[in-house]
Specification:
Elements: no helix or strand
Length: about 60
């Protein structure tokens, strides 16, 4: 991850890799899904990388 560059991709050592609910279907590599917006090893093109939160907009649900 590199938050300063708006890069929130998982790293190889991330505890969020393969950490999703095991009841979900497996991901492309056959393991548990990764937690977070970008799965490990996904390609990041920068599109849609800005998210703005405000207290009046909540509650939030991220899927």
């Amino acid at each position: 991850m590199n938050p300063a560059a708006n890069d929130f991709h998982l790293t190889a050592a991330s505890p969020a890799r393969d950490a999703a609910d095991p009841a979900l279907p497996p991901d492309e590599d056959g393991s548990n899904r990764d937690l977070g917006r970008f799965p490990y090893d996904s390609v990041f093109d920068g599109a849609g990388s800005e998210v703005r939160w405000s207290p009046s907009s909540g509650p939030y649900r991220i899927t």
